[in-house]
Fold this protein.
Amino acid sequence: MSHDATDGHGEHGAHGRPPTRREKWETYKKSPYVPAVVLLFILSAAAGLFAGSYTYAMANPTPHRIPAAVVEGPRTPYATRFVEGMEKALDASLELHRYPDRKQARAAMEEQKVFVVLRSHGDGVVMELAAASGATVAQLLGDTGAKVADRIGVPLTVTDVKPLQKGDPRGLALFYISLAAVIIGFVGAIQLSVHARALLPLERILFTVAYALLGGFTIAAVVDWVLGALDLPFVESWMILAFTMFTSGMVFTMFNTLIGRWAMLPTWGVMVLLGNPSSGGAVSWPLLPSVLGHIGRWLPPGASVNAQHTAVYYQGHQYVFPYLVLGAWALVSCTVFWVWRHRHPGGRDHMPEHAATAT
């Protein structure tokens, strides 16, 4: 009995001793405080980066390279002086492309190769703009042209030959619907990983397709049928939105497979911090910082905006490039997820053994 008491006292003493620093650290690492502290710093940094990326891209749009068509034809001295004045006023950012007649110049505008057509007309100059190509660029060109014409005393006629739709006078609706598709796309994948964790890989992909199709339809229906803000080519716009949502969802799923619970960091970086400001939706690419103007076309948000923009305003002149970009991101994401699906934190193979036995 004495021996038992001694043993009990010994055990009590062992458990009652102060933990070592190593033991404290091991306990702390397993506690919820570690990820909470990490998130504290990550969220603080993300807030600054989010504000900084959008401010850098959109707060002070500056022209870098604006393709412009100049119709050769009969040219007056006023026309030459006007073009020279525009180049000077825009700090040589006007990239001139010369065409023999107005028809070819307008064809270049329809193919989105140029943002403005400059031509002589009588004793004056005509400036043909395409607000649909970029409202911010059209406004800059119109304001600059008026100042140059007033300074040199040349009659100027400004015409918007490709206006924006009445429900979207600032040209932002396409950016907003693409933004909605991007964000809901990866938020949907996050929710699947939390609330439908046991989905098998193929089931996860199929449910991503399902919510992308339904979500894309809802976005298009609200903007077109309910609000009447845009007159969309409905099926085409719906498919672009669905493609965008699916791609965005699979990008998160790919990162979730590769790095687990921190997958939101690269997803947010690619799709929101970098992708949305550089998409050309809020500020046209000629006015973006040159690096963003080039990168944006290779990211899903920029590809989505470009595809949607062409579908709505340039029917018959669609380019395959935006669809290839979306397709490449979707294919790579699906491939990575499928090849390393055993690393994904979801799936019924990851259920606890006792739960599987009980089932």
